[in-house]
Amino acid sequence: MGIIRPVEDIFGSMKELIKLNSRYGENNTLKLLKKPNGEESKTYLLKTSDQMIRSGMTGGRKFIDPSGGPMIVEGERLEEADAVVKSIVHIMGKGYSVTFE
Q1: What is the 8-class DSSP label of residue 2?
Q2: Neighbours of 48 (CB within 10 A)
Q3: Residue 30, Ramachandran bin (φ over 0: left; ψ between -120 and 50: alpha; else beta)
Q4: 3-class SS at 57?
Q5: CA 52/CA 49 separation, integer angstroms
Q6: Who contacts 8 (Cβ-Cβ below 8 Å, separation ≥6)?
Q7: pLDDT digit string (tens) for 4-62?
Q8: Are 27 and 13 in contact (CB under 8 A)?
Q9: Residue 97: which H helix or E strand, with range?
Q10: Does this model's pTM top 0.85?
Q11: What is the C-alpha separation between 12 and 53, in angstroms, rounded?
């Protein structure tokens, strides 16, 4: 496995928006959540063009699979972010948050 780097832009901070490689014309993205105190955040909110999101456990790890993909699994590298998923949390009324290592 290659070197895992944080999701950073040329200025060394986290990207505001990560476009996910979705199929079937779906538009799925991860939008950076900002911390109220201004510290760097590595947590994103999943935004989808379709409300259908499959979720569950695979191999003892949480996953989410939005319509059109990609499947996002804790402990696995997300190609578009070039980082490993640390946690996936459902936020009532908001959707799913994804935090990277």
Answers
A1: -
A2: 19
A3: beta
A4: strand
A5: 9
A6: 14, 15
A7: 445 555 445 568 999 999 998 899 999 999 989 988 899 999 999 988 999 999 999 99
A8: no
A9: strand 95-100
A10: no
A11: 31
